[in-house]
Amino acid sequence: MRKTIIKRHTVFGNLQVIRECPCPKHAAVKRTYYLVKCLVKNKYGNICGNKIRVRSSQLLSGLPKSCGCLLKLVGERNRAINTRYKYGKHPLMHIFSHMRARCYNKKHPSYKNYGRRGIKICKKWLHDPDSFVIWSMSHGWRFGLTLDRRNNNKNYTPKNCRFIPWKPQQNNRRNNIFYRSNKKIIYTLSELADKYNIKYNYLHRLARREKLGINQALKIIKGKKYHYIQLDGYIAR
Ligand SMILES: [Zn+2]
């Protein structure tokens, strides 16, 4: 393979190439290393300036964003957040900040399924994250449980939220298959599979591929005496 030559002053992430710089440890193997300068600005606006040796393939991948100082900066910023609130260091604060990002941060990958759909956080929680932590601790939160909205189209409020052992990131995806129960609660196919302890693929095959419909599929898998919820036909979105 031809060696890619990287020009001086090229910037990858925050790393600016100074010159090629062979690594003595890897002299035997044909690996190209570059000496780069870290351009990350600290909180006072000064450039880090740290010089490190980076393998060319790593540089080209864009993976290293700094000499390592960026991680330290992020850590400092998080510590500042952690001391602002009484429960700032509580693991629930992590859940809170993700919830807030999904609803209000347009750059969050899940924003389209939350904020753009008009999903909000109730004012009390939004303005007082501590109150969210207090509410959660008295409403069944345990390690490993995830925050879930009972009704996918409604906001994050004490009434609409609960802690469940499923992964809502997968279940709440908008491109999933949706069903509405007679109580107007919306379930995705994977939520139903979890709820009734059925393998997703099995339920999907009966309900969708073999076109039996969700009620018939549940009846076949679980038997007649099983109390499943009556569900509307799927809502494709
Ligand atoms: Zn640096």
Topology of helices and strands:
Blueprint: E1 11-12, E2 15-20, E3 33-38, E4 51-55, H1 56-61, H2 69-84, H3 91-104, H4 123-127, H5 129-137, E5 146-149, E6 161-164, H6 168-171, E7 178-180, E8 186-188, H7 189-195, H8 200-209, H9 214-222
Antiparallel strand pairs: 1-2, 2-3, 3-4, 5-6, 7-8
The structure holds zinc ion (ZN).
Through-space gap between termini: 47 Å
The count of helical stretches stands at: 9
Biggest sheet features: 4 strands, antiparallel
Structural class: alpha+beta
Bound molecules: zinc ion
**What is the strand tally?**
8
* Global geometry: extended
Structure description:
The protein is α+β, with helices and mostly antiparallel strands. It folds into 3 domains: 11-70, no CATH class; 89-174, no CATH class; 175-237, no CATH class. It contains 9 helices and 8 strands. The strands form 3 sheets. A 4-stranded antiparallel sheet has the order 1-2-3-4. A two-stranded antiparallel sheet has the order 5-6. A two-stranded antiparallel sheet has the order 7-8. Strand 7 (178-180) and strand 8 (186-188) form a beta hairpin. Helix 8 crosses helix 9. It is extended and about 75 Å long. It binds zinc ion. Zinc ion is lined by residues 38, 40, 48, 50, 66-67, 69.
Concise structural overview:
By secondary structure, the protein is an alpha+beta fold. The protein has helices spanning 56-61, 69-84, 91-104, 123-127, 129-137, 168-171, 189-195, 200-209, 214-222, and strands at 11-12, 15-20, 33-38, 51-55, 146-149, 161-164, 178-180, 186-188.
